[in-house]
């Protein structure tokens, strides 16, 4: 991750503290008695491997924490609610709608599973568990759960029957999609220490963790007849992964795959021995997070009370990333120096969050080389075009398609580390992403809204070759917000998986006058007619009357 900031004395002390912490953990690991079931690997090599994992996964880059000012995962980590789940039918609802729907159902008694026990059968279950698929909506805590699992193992706390853990996130493996190599060579690329190990199914109990199946851009063809049984045999990366998952390669290895619900069926059910679901924070865990995150307990109580007063906001607090966004906004707004209306809706919360981040940007960009509107429009264009394609992570070629070069993207990631991130993977290459899908959806909506109000453009209209006459007509023809809203709603209704639902909420919410006033803090806005909103409301009512079961169509219901 590429980020720049000036370190104050507190940051330097925290950096020294983190360094000291990992040196101590490394020393403890070096002094641990080694299991005799680790043949073919030296004491020193194995502990170097563990130490490197501790350094990588022991820090949580939450908020403004950077590589020089991290937060220790063990200090901030709040246990998540994880349950065993049926593989079942994949929901076509937007993930926010899934959370809202679940909140209305009567409470059920589910068996909670600790993250450290996902490979341990429940009482009464005798069958060994080789492959676990963990699903959960974006930002619910899947990656942090993986991080904590690895850290606990590396520190010698949990799952010590596993000799080696190989975390291979799909966002990094994607960079090797056109590469042909053996599994042994793949591990050498990501984990150089393995060059001094002899990994085979007879000697090691190893765990492969494939985080983010929904981000996979490989062609995982489980019907392929390519069968690999030797870790020294070369093949494409997607064939290596497929053979690992089905058990042709290293059949005794454990496999852990995480995914958002919509992509969970990419792996055939017969290849999966347990399906778990990360539900995020339950009621006590929500409060625990804010009390850990905010040192002033009186302020933490005030924030919790405010969130409880808004059902839509409190439901979203099941998602840890939303808790972080809410804490950042409300901690600032409830301070004595601040005044103004406290956000009560999702659109208000995310707009306040954007304003907060642009203020931080100003502190870094002293010469104001990048204007707020220019940055928001360019990042918004990336957000919108990639949202339509269903992409949450982007590579250099994706950015070029949106008219942004890598250098420009790196500048934005340095100025707005809490919105847009650049990550340097274990393998060569850069990966870009928004901090959370909902931030991408909000920026996408803002881009679409501003393109209409400030630049008289309906971004849903395809750009085609036109003659001079039609171009002149478009130049002088006014694009109304109601026309834009109607086109956006049509697109949303055609979506089979509801992936534009939250985007639509944000888009319609941004046209409300109170949001227009908010946005004027960071950019000039051209006023929009209130008639447009009335026409949009009438259009939605008309659509509801023409739909047989409107309650089954979340795209239209969520906008009412």
From TrEMBL:
Residues 130-263 form the NACHT domain. Pfam families: FISNA (PF14484), NACHT (PF05729), NLRC4_HD2 (PF17776), WHD_NOD2 (PF17779). It comes from the Eukaryota. It is found in: Cytoplasm. Signal peptide: none annotated. Keywords: ATP-binding, Cytoplasm, Leucine-rich repeat, Nucleotide-binding, Repeat. InterPro entries: NACHT-assoc, NACHT_NTPase, NLR, NLRP_HD2, NOD1/2_WH, P-loop_NTPase. One of its GO terms (cellular component) is cytoplasm. This is NACHT domain-containing protein. It comes from Cyprinus carpio carpio.
